[in-house]
Amino acid sequence: MPGLTSVLNADLSGLQAYREALQAISENISNATTPGYGRRSVDMASQVSGPDQMVGNGVQVDGVTRAASAFADARYRSALSSQGSADALVQALTTLQSNFSTSTGINSSLSQFFSDALNLASQPQNLPARQTLISDGQQLAASFNTVAGNIQGNRNNLDQQASGLTAQVNQLLTQLASINQQIRTRGGTDINALLDNQQAALQSLSKLIGVNVIRYSNGTIRLSNNGQVFLDSAGAATLSEQSTVTASDPTGAPQIVMPNGHVLNPTTVSGQLGGVLTAATQAQSILQSVNRMATVTAALINGQQALGLTPSGTQGGPLFSVPSPTVTAQPTNTGSAALSALVSNATQLPSNGGPYMLSYNGTQWTAVNQGDGKSQTLGTGPTLSFSGISVTVSGTANAGDQFLVDPVNGAAAGLTMTTSDPTAIAAAVPYVQTPGTVSGGAVTDNNAGTGVVGSGSVTTTPTAGALVVPAADFGSTLQLVFTSSAAYQVQTTGGSVIASGTYSPTSGGSVALAYPGSASGQYWQMNVSGSPAAGDTFTLSPGGTASGGNADALGQLATQPLLSGNTLNDAWSNVTGDVGAAVNSANTGQTNANTAVQSTQATVASISGVSLDQQAGQLQLYQQAYQASAKSISIVNQLFQGLLNAV
Known about the structure:
Elements: H1 2-30, E1 40-46, E2 59-66, H2 70-97, H3 106-122, H4 127-185, H5 192-208, E3 212-215, E4 221-225, E5 228-232, E6 235-236, E7 240-242, E8 255-257, H6 266-269, H7 271-305, E9 320-321, E10 326-329, E11 338-343, E12 356-360, E13 365-369, E14 375-379, E15 383-386, E16 389-394, E17 402-406, H8 411-414, E18 416-417, E19 431-435, E20 437-439, E21 442-444, E22 452-453, E23 457-459, E24 467-469, E25 478-484, E26 487-492, E27 497-502, E28 509-514, E29 523-529, E30 537-542, H9 549-556, H10 568-608, H11 612-646
Parallel strand pairs: 24-28
Antiparallel strand pairs: 1-2, 3-4, 4-5, 5-6, 7-8, 9-18, 10-17, 11-16, 12-13, 12-17, 13-14, 15-16, 19-30, 20-21, 22-29, 23-29, 25-26, 25-30, 26-27, 28-29
């Protein structure tokens, strides 16, 4: 009887063990596609009994193991974070790129405006041609306004996404804190289902933000990002998204802030949230480049406009206006200094548009471009000139004081055309020459020599020996009179001498008429050649309604390499090209991230995933073992009955 009893006990232990194994397989099959699920396996060992630990008493279940690899799981979570970041970045940059069509928008508006100017140059008295230039100038401004508005709209959407993603992160951190508490409550036993939920939540969290996971022996976890603790035994931190305009960040870029006030570094956040933060930064950088283009476009057109005359004979005024540069003092400043800024030469502005952080160290000022980190030493002041910007310092700065100078803030959104009057266009050159004297509209040409006065051009440095006419006389009708074949004068029509000098038929001469107002520092220079005779006179008259020379020069701006060797259209193409390059880089990153996710996911699946084929084989094996144990019990039962009947 003791022998049959041992056999019966062994069979019963097998029946129970195989039942648990079948239950584990059933659970595996049911959860084959459940996120975070780790394959279960029943750990079996021979039962031992007695002081000698004799075996042969059946089988015992030591526990149910959940398959997992901390290393493989960590690699998979890292890949998920990279994928989430890449997906968010591609989506955002692709949306931004849609603002930069080559067939419409700023590119075509620029081309059309300059084409209109060339057309006006050939018919300066044509009022419809002037009106067309005005209308297309308004369209050019509207194109900049639209692009800037769209980019700002994209920025606002990214801010909203960052807020929504932050809320999701907080929900998952709260869920993981609850799981930690439940694991502690159970003392670390019978927690496989909790670990599944934990794993699924960690994977979801990793898609949103990168986390470093430390797992403790009882199954609880600690989460952090670049040293900032998200989850520990005290519970979950609550992250907040802030898009606040500050002195150091007047754009109000979205930031993720810890409860202790620490701002997470966007480059380490990763996940979808990190991708959104990166996209917001790139969107602002793109907008800054567009602002720079608006500033440069307005400055070049206005600059050329100031070099010509309107049909009424007045110097051309600005056609476009942009907001003035902004200066923001940092709240930590202790001195009394105040800074004002203006754009002195828009063509020298950096292609990224800045802005610049100006810092005073107690001796001198430095400027750091916030777009690329490049630094310049500026000197002691009070006037600081750098990168096409002029800054004036008033008051007293203390060491450590800082000011953020944005030379192009809001330029694209604020670009407007200043006039709708077609007669405001300065199509005429400032002066034209006529051999002889002009009186009452009649020309009397008694010149006997072969002297010739050229049509003129703009210069900032008159030729040596040139007769320089001061800006006070700009716009007056003047006369160039040769008092001899070797001497000449610039006179008023009343005969007053303004400038005089010697003339050489071999080297020639020139007259440089200084511009007033916004064109100050430039000269309209007319070169003289040939062999004039004493008494020869040339009348220098302001360009009239028939002159289209300045309109031609305005149209030629389209092909002038004024921006570090680039034309305006080239510079705009560079902006759109940079956006395209960013999209291509993001697409490449997305492809690499997808590959990494597939690879690491396959590794995790091979370690902890459920293979239905494998489970089917084990199911058959344990079913057969279960049936064998049941059959053995049936046989032992028959033997017992036989023995009892024989008594």
